[in-house]
Amino acid sequence: MSEVQGTVEFSVELHKFHNVDLFQRGYYQIRAGLKLPSRIPHRLAATIVEQTGDSSLSSACVHENNVHSRIFQILYRNEEIVINESMNFRVHLLLDGERVEDALSEADFQLKLDLHFTDSEQQLRDIPAIPVISSRTLGLHFHPRRGLHHHVPVMFDYFHLSVISVTVHASLVALHQPLISFARPGKGSWLGKGSLETGPDQSSMSLENLVFGAGYCKPTSSEGSFYVPSENCMQHAYKWHKDLCLLLLNAYRGLHVYYTVIMKEIPDLPQLKLGKRTDILHLLSPISALECIALYHRHLNNSIITTCSLKCFLLFSLI
Question: InterPro entries given for it (predicted)?
Answer without folding.
Answer: DUF3657, Lipase-like
